[in-house]
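Entry 12.
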Amino acid sequence: MKRGRISRGAYTRALALAAAAAFALARGSDREGEAMLRSVDARLASVHDYTVTLDVVADVERLNVPPMHATMYFKQPDKVHLDAQGFALLPREGLQPNFSKLLTRFTVASVGKDTLEGMPVKKVVLQPKSERTFPRSLTIDVNTDRWTPERIVTTGSGDRVATITFSYVQVGGVWLASEMKAAFALAAPDSGEPDMPSAPMRPPQTPRRGSVTVTFTDYRINTGLSDDIFSKDSSQR
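Predicted 3D structure (tokens):
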């Protein structure tokens, strides 16, 4: 029996169908990841605002950072104020991240299954929409039973990686962070002063590595926080 030849038109249609199927799968992953990140934020729908006490312990190479006691204020959708001064290692946005807002700067590259210390999680990998956006990659492990981010891993320039893990407690029926641990590589600061021609060459600076542990206690939810608390923070963004 003679085998029939596949026509060029049929071959082109097959390629188009394969490409369409691959696009549909990728788009399905996009939609699943986007929906998951919005669900993470939606778990806080009943929390209009909260106040919480923070205890911070930092261990950073070549830096002597004493333990810090602070108060954090949060108001929907993404207002955060820290009542503490002189502690630049503690970013406001990282303490109560807005995951839906990430979708304005990142796209979902993939969604997969994983386990974290025996806990099943969904791993959402994000990539920046612009070459100027940092971090260069962002991975979020989500517990879909309670819609909490369990671990966030970011990759910056070079091999700088930050890993943030969370523990949780239920407050008023809502899962809120009880502890956050961040391990990271921090680039050495530049003095900003150019070397004189006669000055000896300085040895290369290795990245600083360190960790920060934040404990959250004494949550006070829905007390009607005023926008005035966050006015200064908004002007600095």
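Annotation: The first strand starts at residue 49 and ends at 60. Residues 14-28, 190-204 have pLDDT under 50 and may be disordered.
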